[in-house]
Amino acid sequence: GEMAKSTQLIDNEVFRAYATYTAIVLLKMMLMSLITAYFRITRKAFVNPEDTASFGKGESAKKFLRTDPDVERVRRGHLNDLENIVPFVGIGLLYALSGPELSTALLHFRIFVGARIFHTFAYLIPLPQPGRGLSWAVGYSVTFSMAYRVLKTVWLL
Amino acid sequence: GEMAKSTQLIDNEVFRAYATYTAIVLLKMMLMSLITAYFRITRKAFVNPEDTASFGKGESAKKFLRTDPDVERVRRGHLNDLENIVPFVGIGLLYALSGPELSTALLHFRIFVGARIFHTFAYLIPLPQPGRGLSWAVGYSVTFSMAYRVLKTVWLL
Amino acid sequence: GEMAKSTQLIDNEVFRAYATYTAIVLLKMMLMSLITAYFRITRKAFVNPEDTASFGKGESAKKFLRTDPDVERVRRGHLNDLENIVPFVGIGLLYALSGPELSTALLHFRIFVGARIFHTFAYLIPLPQPGRGLSWAVGYSVTFSMAYRVLKTVWLL
């Protein structure tokens, strides 16, 4: 029946691991929105005039339409997440469906998600380089490794 | 046969609902590109020198290489879509495969897509706050709720 | 067994084609990060103070915290990729599961990926317009065509 069909994929252990790590890393990415909002409010640095209306009219509110280094830093971290987590989610799904060993798949997922969590701390604290650069490269390499297996397994051009 | 296999997922009603709402909300996001292009052309505000070549050479074309508040507003709405619709598409897929009740799933999908359509109007008109903020929070909460169910159902770390 | 389940989708030829082209176009998008890094290093144009620490302390390093036209151009190409490849990956997956003919599916995937590769060259060289604009429109239309078939096939609102 419908139910049986819908739970097939989700019964597969590699797919369950993919689902777990993908949900975690997407929630981590979503957290960046809250951190941006936190810094916008505490630093009083907004970009839309309608967002400063509660500070009064005219010049008194206008001075809060400005950029703030902390806000911009979180936004760069958020965009870097999009650039790296989108390929992980897409290629990771294909990888999970390509029938890898559970232990190999877990290794890929754990390293990627660990690297991206470290990357966020490295960006926001910030840590001295090459901390952020290395964590970026590790996540990048994991996605590349999964893409290599996907292409080797499914290649149909 | 191949056909039977390929239509299994698509026969599942929750998955069909997911596919319908995901296609709609991704088309809505794609619409932002057209709105950006519309404002770039009507406001004559471009970013690439090669895009202003039809306005002539040298200084006469150079003055159209500028930012415009309406263009920047649409672009912020587009980026906000990316930041919020990407997690919905990824987590929503896992959620649809986790075997939720159709009525519960429809509730999630409808509220999310409704909230994002409202968010776009709130951003572009613009509506006074907290209109845009609330619609953002509603969509965010729906994705969070789906992630919670996914993690509860599939958890394999 | 687990393995049989996990390889069902991947045995479907349309899905294999989808996986191949999606992996290729996501790798192409990931390449934009490397090109950005290349231009940041060769043009000495950075955005984070910690990235210029190796150039020394104080004013000598501060002068490398600047924007560079080549870096900004690659970044715009990268963002345009995100805006267009995310809908392709999401809608393409649903399309691949909607049971299209292999030849029709291959036509969609090949044109999209070809158009996005051309778009990258058009942006980075840059080619005179309407080269970049047309390649963008071609990719956009392919995704729109797949979305139309998805909605026609699965519609459940």
From TrEMBL, chains A, B, C:
Which leading EC class covers this enzyme?
Answer: transferase
Please give the Gene Ontology molecular function terms for this protein.
glutathione transferase activity
- The organism sits in which domain of life? Eukaryota
Question: Where in or outside the cell is it found?
Answer: Endoplasmic reticulum membrane; Mitochondrion outer membrane
Keyword Membrane attached: yes
> What EC number(s) are associated with this protein in UniProt?
2.5.1.18
Catalytic activity annotation: RX + glutathione = an S-substituted glutathione + a halide anion + H(+)
Using the UniProt record, give the first listed, main subcellular location.
endoplasmic reticulum
Q: Might you report a single GO cellular component term?
A: mitochondrial outer membrane
Gene3D superfamilies according to UniProt: Membrane associated eicosanoid/glutathione metabolism-like domain
The protein's UniProt keywords, in alphabetical order, are: Acetylation, Endoplasmic reticulum, Membrane, Mitochondrion, Mitochondrion outer membrane, Transferase, Transmembrane, Transmembrane helix
Report membrane topology: Multi-pass membrane protein
Q: Which residues cross the membrane?
A: 18-39
Q: What does this protein do?
A: Conjugation of reduced glutathione to a wide number of exogenous and endogenous hydrophobic electrophiles.
Under the heading PANTHER family, the entry gives: MICROSOMAL GLUTATHIONE S-TRANSFERASE 1
Quaternary organization:
Homotrimer; The trimer binds only one molecule of glutathione.
Protein family membership: Belongs to the MAPEG family.
- The name on file for this protein is Microsomal glutathione S-transferase 1
What lineage, starting at the top, does this entry show? Eukaryota, Metazoa, Chordata, Craniata, Vertebrata
